[in-house]
Design goal:
The protein has helices at residues 41-47, 86-101, 104-120, 133-143, 164-178, 198-211, 223-233, 237-243, 261-270, 278-283, 291-296, 316-331, 339-354, 387-393, 418-442; strands spanning 3-15, 18-30, 35-40, 52-63, 65-70, 123-129, 146-153, 184-190, 215-219, 251-255, 273-276, 300-303, 371-375, 400-405, 408-412, 415-416. By secondary structure, it is α/β, with parallel strands linked by helices. The longest helix is centred in the last third of the chain and has 25 residues, at 418-442.
């Protein structure tokens, strides 16, 4: 049996107790793409249980980053609706554009564009909440990126589906088609409490429980969402989801910007997770999510970029750094969100939220080899005293040199593999017609 030993100057990984950093370390990957050994390079070399070796003498080896909330195909709308608050951004620009443009071809091209950007920047897993999930699945698989397909459900008709039952039926068909793919897993994704009725959440929950998959939604992203809910029912959205039985360890919410102490306690009580999207929340002026308070309460937190239409980068290094810096300022405490906490949010926190932490999110024996190498060669990366701090505060996606998903090499010394190279060569001509159509809609 073939196996591969990768050694590096540092190996860092989140654990249940914090973050472990080992100097002059490595790991062994078997032909099935699983990690079979991990520890000091000297010990692994002495055992000799490998057939090939990659030595990254001046690199940090880390788990691949997990983008736990994204709308991948919206990469084709990058920059098309900038500098607007969320309600106007959605109602005046995004929803009209989607109504005119979004179909299987749009999703196939947009998802490939997003996946290429993410993989080159060290993001090995994406939780994708968007329409035409079959096209998205094929795009992720074509490039070798791991994905959680968050199958959308919304109360109003789109080009994708006519009603709630149709959304659920289509989503379940996608799940049935791809359920055997090891790189794909699934969630049901009612869009938000303000776009999904009680009956919609109840239907979604029944199917999710039957299939053993998570539920993912947007939650309390804006102050208006909360005030509108209170005006309509005198009930905050988090309390409503608790009443409906939606909150559980199998539930994860995107944003959670406007959570009060009661909301946070409710999420913690039910073991739910929150995905923090700092760049999108800043750009849309939605606010600053209370991440330090969530962590203090014991709520699991992941990180996401949201879509490129509201970010405009699918850059998890930027999200990590922002999450730590914003948390410090918001708490008036420089120790509020540590580098280790931000790193964990970007890796194991996202895996836990999406229900895939038994497979990925950390470097452990028995887990799949989703990992990245970050070079320490650039002047901006020297000197180095703490590899975890360096990874969060100094590194950028430009420092990613190697990417593996399930043990398969997707980027080798900054050179994409054949599938990724082909996609990058073909994408400009495929993107151009959409650019022209978006420009016509914006005119």
């Amino acid at each position: 049996m073939s196996s591969m030993l990768i050694t590096a100057r540092y190996l860092i990984t989140p654990t249940d107790d914090g973050v472990t950093a080992i100097e002059h370390a490595g790991l062994v990957i078997d032909e099935a793409g699983l990690i079979t050994a991990l520890g000091s390079a000297e010990a692994l070399l002495s055992k000799g249980e490998f057939t090939t070796r990659i030595d990254l003498a001046n690199h940090i080896l880390a788990p691949g980053l997990i983008n736990a909330h994204c709308h991948a195909a919206m990469a084709l709308l990058r920059g098309a609706a900038d500098d607007l608050p969320l309600h106007r951004w959605l109602t005046e620009r995004i929803w009209p554009m989607e109504s005119a443009l979004v179909d299987e071809h749009f999703v196939r091209v947009g998802t490939q564009l997003a996946a290429a950007e993410m993989l080159l920047g060290g993001t090995t897993t994406c939780v994708d909440m968007y329409f035409y999930s079959t096209a998205a699945a094929r795009s992720f698989l074509s490039l070798g990126q791991r994905a959680v397909l968050a199958l959308p459900v919304i109360d109003f008709a789109t080009r994708y589906a006519a009603d709630v039952d149709a959304y659920i039926t289509i989503g379940l068909q996608v799940r049935d088609e791809f359920v055997g793919e090891p790189l794909l897993s699934f969630a049901l994704a009612p869009h938000a409490p303000y776009t999904a009725a009680d009956s919609t959440f109840q239907k979604v929950l029944a199917y999710a429980n039957e299939l053993g998959i998570p539920v993912h939604t947007h939650l309390q992203e804006t102050a208006q969402e909360v005030s509108d809910a209170l005006a309509q029912s005198n009930e905050r959205p988090t309390a409503r989801l608790a009443r409906l039985g939606v909150l559980s360890p199998d539930f994860f919410a995107a944003h959670g910007v406007h959570l009060d102490a009661t909301d946070i306690a409710t999420l913690a009580q039910h073991g739910a997770s929150v995905v923090h999207c700092p760049s999108s929340n800043l750009k849309l002026a939605s606010g600053l999510a209370p991440i330090a308070a969530l962590l203090k309460a014991g709520v699991n937190v992941g990180l996401g970029t949201d879509g490129a239409a509201s970010n405009n980068r699918l850059d998890m290094f930027e999200e990590m750094r922002l999450a730590a810096l914003i948390g410090k300022v918001q708490s008036n405490d420089a120790s509020a969100i540590s580098a280790a906490q931000a790193f964990t949010m970007a890796t194991l926190g996202g895996a836990r939220a999406a229900g895939i932490s038994q497979t990925t999110g950390s470097l452990e024996v028995g887990k799949t080899a989703d990992l990245i190498a970050v070079s320490l060669d650039a002047p901006a990366m020297q000197p180095i005293f703490d590899p975890v701090s360096h990874f969060v505060y100094a590194a950028s996606r430009a420092d990613v040199t190697h990417v593996w998903v399930a043990g398969r090499t997707l980027v080798n010394d900054r050179v994409p593999n054949d599938a990724l190279s082909r996609a990058m060569a073909e994408l400009p001509s495929q993107i151009l017609p959409f650019t022209e159509r978006v420009n016509a809609l914006r005119a």
